[in-house]
Design goal:
Distance between the termini: 30 Å
Number of strands: 0
Low-confidence stretches: none
Largest sheet: none
Oligomer: single chain
Strand content: under 5%
Radius of gyration: 14 Å
Structural class: mainly alpha
């Protein structure tokens, strides 16, 4: 089982001092990545981050989003982008609507953890996000 799945954090959201997420485990034993109670809470956090990217940085296409999420200083960003485009069917510079985010997050979880999450799981995480 990958670290992201053990942490119920399939997009490997890093811990940031002073930031607490809904659904975050009370005890955080991973020094680097947030640990959630359930995978849906980890997905909700990912959707919240995408909203911030869109609003604050105007990152609304796969290229811009992935460059922020997985910068070249730490990742093979261009390969990440190619994979996400392949798995979603979206173009790298295509403007994504919020309704496209579940497909995007599913592909990003596949890249981050090497697993294909069930659509129902993604939808439950998206519904938690929409409730906030």
């Amino acid at each position: 089982m990958t670290r992201g799945l053990r942490n119920c954090n399939p997009l490997n959201i890093r811990r940031v001092a002073g930031t607490e997420w809904k659904g975050q485990r009370a005890e955080q034993t991973d020094r680097h990545f947030v640990q959630f109670e359930r995978i849906e809470w980890g997905l909700r956090a990912a959707f919240c981050i995408l909203r911030t990217y869109a609003r604050r940085y105007n990152a609304v296409c796969i290229c811009d989003i992935i460059h922020r999420w997985a910068p070249p200083s730490e990742n093979l960003t261009e390969q990440y982008i190619r994979n996400v485009c392949l798995w979603t069917g979206f173009g790298g510079l295509q403007r994504l609507a919020e309704s496209d985010w579940p497909r995007l997050v599913k592909a990003m979880a596949r890249q981050e953890c090497g697993i294909v999450l069930e659509d129902a799981t993604i939808v439950r995480g998206f519904c938690l996000y929409k409730l906030t």
